[in-house]
Design goal:
This protein has 10 helices and 21 strands. It has 452 residues and is an alpha+beta fold. The protein folds into 2 domains: 320 residues, no CATH class; 116 residues, Roll (SH3 type barrels). A hairpin with an 8-residue loop joins strand 12 and strand 13. Helix 5 runs antiparallel to helix 6.
Length: 452
């Protein structure tokens, strides 16, 4: 069951996906980079891709569900709908479109905005889906006008308009033993477009889905359980990829993203707010924003309330807040932590000779593991069938070393092996990768547990 914290986490990541590429540095409407803002999850109208006017009209995913009852699937489709903002200046004969207009102390510019769209489909009984069922998808168009006055004199107006979006969501289910391979496809069913402007105006922008399951469990496509590997291998993806989302360990929610993510993605805690800037680096963007002139900042503020919020946040950023954006290294690959001599600079040649497998360590799940550390064995790479017999056994780390290919190997001896002292004496160790080891605290390793 998804927790409240898990739902909040999914929403935060989904919002980041939704607005990725919405604003591009330096955010001013005159920036060449901002002439091609919409980059991820764009579903163009039919035929737009072939005509070179827009993007493919569909995205599709297949997920694997382990049934534990009468499974019910809910699909939340989210996207941005383009909204044209046209600035018109008042004249004696009415209004005329202009690129920008200053009314009082406020500057207005013509600009493409976007509004959030979301619809939930289901819950759908998977047992009743069979070879396919299709649901209509529709977001209304419309227009609004805002009159701009200064000292009770009408000086202009803002006209916001958007085209309606038409599409569909198709769902099909294939039963594979105790698993269900569920296919979800989102299609743009709108009319054809004659220009690039028409194409993007009738596109689903930043499209993605949040899938939730009742009475079932989603299987990770990145790290599937052994009995699900064959089903996962048969899955096909088109312009998106599904990852487990929510709090780590939860299996009832999936985020189908047009951006490559790991399972259980999170927004970095160091990030003080969204920058919407096509996966750029927060620190670099913040520093560059601080270098803008007052006139450039005024131009950026005029484009969009979100751009104005970014400028204001960077202007108010303290040195401590800026510092926390720097120096956090996230590496999915473990690295050795050598015990270097304090008298030897780390950049010198002599430091290489101070790397000692008997003293070096590695961080596993945030725990420093080195010689003498206790670990539980979790063989998973299936390189040696004999390794499977060690699953769950407790071992003592004897050394940590790396090879020329950058791989790290941890040598261990089994605590429950009567010949462990002999193996340790002449250096005959069992070797495992760091992700096959679970660190144990000394308090957790009791004589009773070892004998089990």
């Amino acid at each position: 069951m998804t927790t409240y914290a898990g739902i909040d986490n999914v929403r935060a990541v989904a919002d980041a996906v939704l607005y990725e590429g919405y604003l591009l540095y330096p955010y001013r409407s005159t920036s060449g980079k901002n002439q091609s803002r919409w980059q991820f999850g764009v579903l163009g109208p039919p035929g737009a891709a072939d005509a070179g006017l827009g993007e493919d009209s569909s995205m599709s995913t297949q997920v694997v569900v382990r049934s534990i009852g009468d499974c019910r699937l809910s699909i939340t489709v989210r996207c941005l709908q383009l909204q044209r903002r046209r600035i018109e200046q008042a004249t004696g004969d009415g209004f005329v479109a202009v690129g920008d207009l200053t009314v009082g102390a406020t500057r207005w510019v013509s600009w493409d905005e976007a509004i959030e769209c979301e619809v939930e489909i289901g819950p759908v009984e998977l047992a009743n889906v069979g070879t396919g069922i299709e649901f209509p998808l529709h977001f209304e168009g419309g227009s609004e006008t805002e009159v701009l006055r200064h000292n009770d004199v009408v000086e202009g107006r803002v006209v916001r308009s958007r085209s309606s979006l038409h599409g569909s969501v198709a769902v099909s289910v294939e039963e594979v033993g105790e698993f269900s391979r569920v296919a979800v496809a989102v299609h743009n069913r709108g009319g054809s477009a004659a220009t690039k402007d028409q194409a993007i105006g009738t596109s689903f922008i930043g499209a993605h889905q949040i899938l939730t399951i009742e009475a079932g469990q989603f299987v990770s496509l990145l790290e599937p359980a052994d009995d699900a590997v064959a089903v996962v291998v048969g899955c096909a993806q088109h312009r998106c990829f599904p990852v487990l989302a929510g709090a780590p360990g939860e299996t009832d929610i999936v985020l189908v993203s047009p951006i490559i993510l790991y399972d259980y993605p999170e927004v970095a805690e160091q990030s003080g707010g969204a920058l919407f800037d096509s996966t750029e680096i927060d620190e670099i963007l913040s520093l560059r924003i601080m270098t803008l002139t007052d006139e450039e900042k005024a131009q950026a503020r005029a484009t969009d309330p979100m751009a104005a919020a970014i400028i204001d946040r960077c202007d108010a950023m303290s040195p401590q807040e800026l510092a926390q954006l720097h120096g956090v290294l996230r590496d999915p690959h473990p690295r050795m932590l050598p015990e270097l001599d304090d008298e030897i600079p780390w950049w010198s040649e002599e430091s290489d000779t101070s790397v000692q497998p008997e003293l070096d360590g590695i961080s596993i799940d945030g725990v420093h593991v080195a010689k003498g550390s206790m670990v539980r064995l979790k063989p998973s790479r299936r390189a040696d069938a004999q390794d499977l017999f060690y699953d769950g056994q407790i071992a003592r780390v004897a050394l940590v070393h790396g090879d020329v290919d950058g791989e790290i190997h941890v040598g261990v001896v089994l605590v429950d092996d009567p010949a462990s002292d002999m193996h340790d004496w002449y250096g005959r160790y069992l070797y495992f990768a760091p992700d096959e080891l679970q660190p144990l605290s000394s308090d957790a390793v009791t004589g009773k547990e070892i004998r089990q």
